[in-house]
Structures
1.
Amino acid sequence: MDRNVRMARTETALVDDIGRVATELRVSLTDRCNLRCSYCMPPEGLDWLPRDDMLTDSELLRLISVGVEKLGIREVRFTGGEPLLRRGFPQIVAHTKALPSAPLISMTSNGLGLARTAHALATAGLDRVNISLDSIDAHTFTTITHRDRLDDVIAGLAAARDAGLTPIKVNAVLLRGINDTEAPGLLRWCLDRGYELRFIEQMPLDAQHAWNRTDMVTADETLSLLSRSFTLTPVGSRGSAPAQRFLVDGGPATVGIIASVTRPFCGDCNRVRLTADGQIRNCLFAREESDLRAALRAGADDDSLAAQWRAAMRSKRAGHGIDDLAFLQPARPMSAIGG
């Protein structure tokens, strides 16, 4: 590659001080959610962001455009809270897909409401989905989420498959003494339906700040549970993807393990986050944010917004530091950050 081209890309890309380049933007559309998963928020819910603090659709789309067209973002993933609760979500997807660079567009969702919106979202330009599902046992599902909505999630997954929003990835968190013994059954259920299951270590991002590493089901424990029923073979390098993938019984189907705590992959991170109220977070566990909403509402042009965004990325830490004795959990819970 020509040296001048490399320099130009470096000057416009979202590069941090140790050379990592952010190419995936995770956009939280709302902090609201219609489930109450015990590892995320209390049963009574939380105090939601004031409406006036939330980015409007036009503000949101402008910042996405800056990220994609000026800063080299190649994939936009919409998250929440629950992104399907955002009114006008199909139109947001359509406008994002219509950008000249036409980024890959994905969504992380709990699946509620997807049965009636999957086809509209696919038509708008959504490429694929990640759906959270911790159990296929109705009682266990209700225990974890405090909502009796398992059938709705299963219907949403089927609708996403029918709409071509593939590959469909299912995200599951194992909780000790609650659903940890269900891991093999959940994997078999996903394999039978063509879904790619990924187990995620529980992270210290709950609103209650009750996370305890001793209680967390580790990646090694998950692999041990699965290996009693399946033969798992590692699949090469994962690159910047968070999941280490394993062939199941020789393949071609795979299962993924996201060991955010015990096997951190911070050195390969290519993600940056935009919250529903317009804050840039350069790490899921960051305690600092850069306020693009204020700059935008004060009249900043796109070049100024891009410059502030690049500055926010340069201070990204080398790692999340969960094992550091000085580690402090972010003030915002996962529902207000976006996964």
2.
Amino acid sequence: MVLLAAAVCNKQGKALLSRQFVDMTRSRIEGLLASFPKLMTTGKQHTFVETDSVRFVYQPIDKIYMVLVTTRNSNILEDLETLRLFARVIPEYCKVLDEADVVKNAFSLIFAFDEIVALGYRENVSLAQIRTLTEMDSQDERIQIAVRQTQEREAKEASKRKAKELTQLRKDAVKTGRAMPAMGGMGSSNSNMSSMSTPVVETHRQEEKPAYQAPKVSSGKGMKLGTKAKDVDMFVNQLKSEGEKVMSQAATSIRKASVHESSGGNSAAGRAGVHVESKEEIKLTAGGDGSLESMEITGVLAFKVTDESSSRLALKIDLGDGRSQIQLHPKFDKDKWRNQGIAALKNPEEAFPLNTEVSILKWRLQTTEEDQIPLSINCWPTEAAKGVQVNIEYTLNATDVELRDVVISIPIPQGYGAPVVGDCDGEYTYERGYLSWKIPVIDDSNETGILEFTTPSGKPTGFFPVKVDFTSAQSLLGVTIEEIQRATDGEPVKFSSDHLLKVSKYEFV
């Protein structure tokens, strides 16, 4: 493949920028690009057009065209692959993708084009490598900057300490009635600088002795533990002698804290007099191709009453799709639970204890059905000409649940080399032998995502197990509180609720 030039044109065919990779005159490239829009008017919907001497391979990108000018005998498959890489580079520097944005970032685009093609031939680089090369990020430079900042910070701290020492010397000189020592020995009559420095150092040491011996003087003005407490006690005793009754501030604070604790949990932000709390935990082991080996989901539902007027309750619970095994607390009425789906004490007049967490029920699901996996991972490592290429895809099967703080960790064994990431739906970090793929939220708006990376060496089996971690504020099995009523008169009671789903183990081996 011989690539003659790469250009970005507007819809009318006007060249916004062009980069030639072989010796070509300006009039030659302008003539070729001027003929490009005329060839486009033939009505043929192809990704390339040809003339007698060259081939135009193009791709529309919003309001512009990415155009490659190649020889007619070049490999069209390689041309299209190179075109796709060029088209992915443009959004890295142009956010609006219009003429003004392209012209504004022309030099950055040209530098990136030079990393893709050299002397008319395609370089074996990815988008991540292009980004690194154009940014010219240097680890040595970062270390040097950090060292310089540390030195500046230490110099500032040293100057502050020196200023404090000088201030202390002035204070000590005022107390003892002595004059400040001459700074730098400028009053010495000896003109020899080497002999002048010696008496200055000796004088400075002699004058500093009182400052360091000051704590030995029993003046009572030095810093001592308990001095503040003694002053407060003297002030309180003085007020008491005058007939005043004073309570120390510490005792008042302790009393206020006790009153706050005795008032229950009503002061917690967003919590009502009846607060329901449910927790779920998932444990999953699956194959690298997404096949499920085992999955277990366990949960518990509890509530706490802080309002005495709402201590006699009956709770109507939605058990979701009914897949899970439910176990009700023995103290609740089993007949009312089976017939009406209501959890209530056997004695309606019995009240729940205040400020105490009361467990209602537990649930559990064990399955090996693959369609029950909430978030499936498909990992495909493939040996390439240089190293291993890995493609990972996630799919959210439980689209009614929002997963948060999702982290997919892929092990990179020692000796494989640092991974070079291409496409990534989200963010990634590489440290301590793991490539961590981070997605803040996965819901029905981003049900699937892809991560692609390559390593200089390795084996396809070395990238397992892939570990996943996430949380959610929704139940996987749909177990929720529908309504809470007073057990005596059936009146609805206002309540608040929280749910936490967390991962115990989530691996694809």
3.
Amino acid sequence: DEDSRGFDPNFIPEDIEPENLNSASVGAIGSNQSGSSPSNSEQASSGSDPSLGGQSGDSESSSNAQSTAENATDTSSGGIRGTDGVNGSTMHLPFNLDYTKVPVLGSYNSAQRGTSEVTTQWYNLPEQAGENTPVLAVSAAGDIYHHDVNDIEQEGMELTLEYGTLGEDNEVTNTGELELRDVGAAPKWRNLRIALDEIPEEANVVRLVAVDDSTDEDSWLAFTPPRVPELTSLNSQFDSSMPGLLDWSTAFQFPCQRTFDHFAGVTEIPEYRILPDAPAQTSLTDFQSFSGGGAMATAEAVNYSYEIPSYLDGDWARDWGAIQKYELRTNSAGITPDPADIDYEEITRTGWWQNSEMKIRKEGED
């Protein structure tokens, strides 16, 4: 960072829950510092081009009338990882981001006595937005000031995207600022975003300016560097051959995806889950959980999950829902369980066939 006060890689709450809770190629932005290594807070998230501060990895995905998606346990609620990240942070990163390459900064401090602010260094933008790279995203948490999809002002801390033109003299001119679109249930981790075509064509660099002007312990924000994800369609990652857990409120909206099956009394393990928007998640998830006797009981007994960042194609500010990727849990040796080998046979009986009396509990018996 160029200018920082009160922000720290570990100033992030250990537990982050939505306020209204009822119960890849992930980057193409790099530092503009030629011939020198970027500082921790200016490094881009992992991406497909190592020269731009990234690495080969999972890609985000999109679907025209459905969603756009980006490729641990679900870390949207925070937590401590225990091992140092690229800038010394031990906090969990969301969306399966690579903590060895993606830095993070936050302003949460239980002993906070003053305000905090940080201005990052400039990051290079791609030379032009491609068909599969139409949006810039920033993973962030906390209450952040923004206008929602209905253009209603929402209070919070300031996180602004500044743009400019880097000239041959290494000076940045033609600067301006834009408000990132915020969706999801604050303060949990979500992806702020803006369409690249909203940034002036002459701009070739961007940076983030964050201001926490409150001394309230519960008022804070955290963020990772901006990235330009490579998007792919939802169907290209999760087609009908892959079993999924589709929440009942979203199932009819995804006819190309297949709900996990049952056979011979054995439940098929889903490989992903499609959830509704944030308000519906908080009210509809519990009855599907273990305590509610729902489908998530078997799915999460053998899986851990993380959210894949997702967007509605062409309507970037819309909270369409969410996608969680399930991964099988391993034992202490790092081995995942084998699929069940079902031994069965088919026997045809007449309608009056009887092998024994049905066992029925009699009145008074325990």
